Q: What sequence folds into this?
């Protein structure tokens, strides 16, 4: 997949490619990240606080979220600001999902 482009010193456009793999951390962790993070106190999130010092942002990134693994098939989809309105069945959970807002 194309990740980026740049122009070298001779003016030739070069393409940077790479592979993106999503791994389910639950496969190699003793518990889910959600459960593991609930064992920590707020002041133990040292690195997270460096990047999300604002209390509201800090609370948002600490919450369990959702990720549309079945929808994202390339970097262009990651650049989208909102999901397309559609109905699909999640391959990982076999649940029917509909975006309502």
A:
């Amino acid at each position: 997949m194309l990740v980026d482009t740049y122009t070298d010193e001779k003016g030739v456009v070069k393409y940077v490619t790479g592979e993106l793999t999503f791994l389910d951390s639950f496969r190699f962790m003793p518990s889910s990240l959600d459960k593991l993070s609930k064992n920590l106190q707020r002041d133990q999130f040292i690195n997270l606080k460096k990047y999300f010092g604002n209390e509201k942002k800090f609370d948002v990134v600490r919450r369990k979220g959702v990720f549309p693994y079945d929808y994202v098939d390339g970097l262009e989809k990651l650049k989208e600001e909102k999901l397309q309105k559609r109905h699909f069945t999640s391959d990982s959970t076999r649940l029917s999902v509909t975006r309502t807002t």
About this structure: The chain is about 25% helix and 15% strand.
